[in-house]
């Protein structure tokens, strides 16, 4: 299946060809929003729940519109309500507890949660975030959600016999959340599984998690999987069997040294390729990004290529992140024009897979 | 009658205040990590943190007290990361963990510099009356974590690492015990010939140490042939990770025997679930029964380094280990 993609093409799209432009998720938070969080966490400050909610709404609205002004076809709110990709969810799932920070490297720490009781669906995770963003947005909204394998792998497991069992339990909760998101109108969900890149031998566990996640999710909901910073040859082509429409992969960071991995075996799904490095503070030129996009066309034909940054861009200065988005959209539109004019030879023929697999 | 000695393999989590203070003083980037020539403020912060973790161990009632290895930003690669003949490069994954260290690239003679670990031990000795335990990476693991651009030959490189560690051990203050941590013996099984050389390198360090020496392995059971070679090293005990793999370990000991003393990783250094003293004691008894041996000394320890844990659970686990050793004494 390559999925329901046309619903995301804007009515006023200027070119015949359509390269779907989007983001992976996180975006730099405005400085005033960081300050608001500090005040909210400061017991002595006169800054309560209402003020903090207002700050999150304001930041979400601002970044949603910033994405739209950059011209992106599918947007999100830059995860303005979220602090970290595991912590945010662990706070909402019954069974998790927090004991304190642990080292990742050097003086970089992470409040790694513990599963201290059986996990159960607690308060809503992302429905309110989606409803707000969808309300203020003109363009379609994508919802990034941390996948169950990463939620399990980046937690202490005190309860379940194996990490695999915990991952499956969490997959059922992710399924429940996605059902609620779909009910609220979401049509594009991206499951983030960065832990897969670090433990590639577990790709079958991630596959089983995804089977549980997609259970009873309607066919017109586009599902993507984001993986980053790993050795893709150890998970590809096996991951093509996953029940998702699109794979969003980081490749600009390594200067496309792993691109050949995806050419050795036909890429039968949609390919969301990173065309921007999320960890360099220089804005890539339109010309450079166009060259990157053409590399994607060596893997899949234009109707199956999605153009996005490598990863979430929250660590960049905001003006750099904005500049990258703008140049990325311009580069995609110029490539579309060149495709329309027959000026680009499409390398990948890519027989379209059928929608019933 | 078996004597149970409660201890740890060191590499503790920094106290939370020290995480913040040192991040502020040093920074968050790879160029900000420990270099061996820290400023006075950084040294003072580490001194205070070291005193704190020594007191935590003494209050818990551990039988061996380690320096804590709080300065080891690069974990087991630390002794090379601060070496004059070594350049630290990019951030690389630390075994199969979601942790990273700077890749140490050896670019010159390793005999030219040393004493970093001994200096920290000396600072610890001022606060410890008895039972001071040194911790070093084993030679095979340290070589495995590093990249050689100087010696050009694996065997020569391992020898140079072993010689460097021997000199380090010779400059130690008086210590009761030395733990040589050798996870690479499990994680990256030595090839034919390499297994024998690894055992000889461990033997060289053990011979230089005026202390009880434990060669501690973890993240699984050591492969059979490598274990057979390790038995040839003149160490006082070999350490096993009973959390990760107890069956293969028991098989190895049944098949090849072990030393008169043994170290048993009976507490999980990578999970917040705190083992009860009774559980710890049961695991020790189980191992003795399975191997049908009453050991002279059992070092009851966490299986791995403990920096993976949040501070509260880390402290609970030290207490559980100490109480497990006492439990045994009460029943004797």
TrEMBL record, chain A:
Residues 318-345 form a coiled coil. GO terms for biological process: methylation. Its cofactor is Zn(2+). This is Methionine synthase. InterPro entries: Met_Synth_C/arc, UROD/MetE-like_sf. Keywords: Coiled coil, Metal-binding, Methyltransferase, Transferase, Zinc. Residues 20-333 form the Cobalamin-independent methionine synthase MetE C-terminal/archaeal domain. Its EC number is 2.1.1.13. Pfam families: Meth_synt_2. The lineage of its organism: Archaea, Methanobacteriati, Methanobacteriota, Stenosarchaea group, Halobacteria. It comes from Haloarcula argentinensis. One of its GO terms (molecular function) is 5-methyltetrahydropteroyltriglutamate-homocysteine S-methyltransferase activity. SUPFAM superfamilies: UROD/MetE-like.
From TrEMBL, chain B:
One of its GO terms (molecular function) is methyltransferase activity. InterPro entries: Cbl-indep_Met_Synth_N (IPR013215), UROD/MetE-like_sf (IPR038071). Residues 87-279 form the Cobalamin-independent methionine synthase MetE N-terminal domain. It comes from Haloarcula argentinensis. Keywords: Methyltransferase, Transferase. One of its GO terms (biological process) is methylation. This is 5-methyltetrahydropteroyltriglutamate--homocysteine methyltransferase. The keyword Transferase applies. SUPFAM superfamilies: UROD/MetE-like.
């Amino acid at each position: 299946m390559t999925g329901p993609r046309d619903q995301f093409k804007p009515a006023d799209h200027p070119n015949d060809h359509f390269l779907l432009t989007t983001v992976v998720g996180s975006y730099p938070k405005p400085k005033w929003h960081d300050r608001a969080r500090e005040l909210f966490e400061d017991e002595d400050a006169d800054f309560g729940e209402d003020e903090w909610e207002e700050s999150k709404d304001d930041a979400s609205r601002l970044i949603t519109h910033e994405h739209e002004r950059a011209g992106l076809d599918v947007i999100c709110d830059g995860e303005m309500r979220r602090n970290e990709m595991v912590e945010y969810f662990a706070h909402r799932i019954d069974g998790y507890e927090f004991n304190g920070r642990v080292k990742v490297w050097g003086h970089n720490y992470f409040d790694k949660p513990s599963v201290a009781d059986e996990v159960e669906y607690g308060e809503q995770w992302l429905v309110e975030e989606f409803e707000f963003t969808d309300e203020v947005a003109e363009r379609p909204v994508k919802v990034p959600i941390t996948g169950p394998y990463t939620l399990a792998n980046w937690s202490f497991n005190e309860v379940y016999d194996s990490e695999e069992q915990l991952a499956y339990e969490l997959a059922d909760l992710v399924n429940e959340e996605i059902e609620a998101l779909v009910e609220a109108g979401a049509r594009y969900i991206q499951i983030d599984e960065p832990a897969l890149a670090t433990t590639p031998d577990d790709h079958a566990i991630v596959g089983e998690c995804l089977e549980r996640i997609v259970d009873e999710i309607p066919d017109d909901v586009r599902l993507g999987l984001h993986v980053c910073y790993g050795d893709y040859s150890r998970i590809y082509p096996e991951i093509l069997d996953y029940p998702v429409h699109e794979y969003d992969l980081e490749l600009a960071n390594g200067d496309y040294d792993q691109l050949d991995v995806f050419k050795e075996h036909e890429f039968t799904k949609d390919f969301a390729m990173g065309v921007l490095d999320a960890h360099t503070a220089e804005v890539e030129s339109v010309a450079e990004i166009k060259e990157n996009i053409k590399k994607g066309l060596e893997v899949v034909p234009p109707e199956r290529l999605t153009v996005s940054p490598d990863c979430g861009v929250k660590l960049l200065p905001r003006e750099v992140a904005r500049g990258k988005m703008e140049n990325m959209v311009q580069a995609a539109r110029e490539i579309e024009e060149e495709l329309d004019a027959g000026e680009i030879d499409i390398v990948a023929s890519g027989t379209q897979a059928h929608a019933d697999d | 009658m078996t004597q149970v000695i409660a201890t740890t393999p060191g590499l503790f989590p920094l106290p939370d205040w020290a995480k913040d203070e040192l991040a502020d003083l040093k920074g968050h980037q790879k160029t900000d990590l420990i270099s061996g020539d820290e400023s006075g403020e950084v040294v003072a912060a580490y001194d205070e943190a070291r005193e704190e973790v020594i007191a935590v161990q003494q209050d818990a009632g551990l039988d061996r007290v380690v320096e804590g290895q709080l300065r080891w930003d690069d974990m087991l690669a630390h002794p090379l990361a601060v070496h004059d003949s070594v350049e630290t490069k990019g951030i690389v994954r630390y075994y199969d963990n979601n942790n990273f260290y700077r890749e140490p690239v050896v670019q010159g003679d390793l005999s030219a510099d040393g004493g970093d670990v001994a200096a920290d031990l000396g600072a610890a000795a001022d606060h410890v009356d008895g039972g001071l335990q040194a911790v070093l990476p084993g030679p095979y693991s340290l070589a495995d974590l590093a990249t050689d651009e100087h010696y050009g030959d694996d065997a020569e490189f391992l020898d140079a690492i072993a010689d460097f560690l021997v000199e380090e051990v010779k400059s130690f203050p008086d210590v009761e015990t030395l733990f040589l941590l050798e996870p690479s013996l499990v994680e990256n099984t030595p090839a034919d010939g390499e297994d024998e050389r690894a055992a000889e390198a461990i033997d060289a360090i053990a011979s230089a140490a005026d202390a009880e020496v434990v060669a501690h392995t973890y993240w699984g059971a050591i492969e059979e042939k490598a274990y057979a070679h390790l038995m040839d090293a003149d160490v006082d005990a070999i350490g096993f990770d009973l959390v990760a793999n107890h069956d293969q370990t028991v098989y190895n000991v049944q098949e090849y025997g072990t030393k008169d003393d043994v170290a048993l990783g009976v507490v999980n250094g990578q999970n917040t679930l705190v083992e009860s003293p009774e559980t710890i004691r049961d695991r020790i008894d189980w191992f003795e029964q399975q191997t049908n041996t009453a050991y002279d000394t059992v070092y009851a320890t966490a299986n791995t380094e403990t920096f993976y844990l949040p501070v509260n659970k880390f402290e609970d686990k030290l207490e559980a280990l100490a109480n497990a050793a006492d439990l045994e004494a009460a029943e004797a």
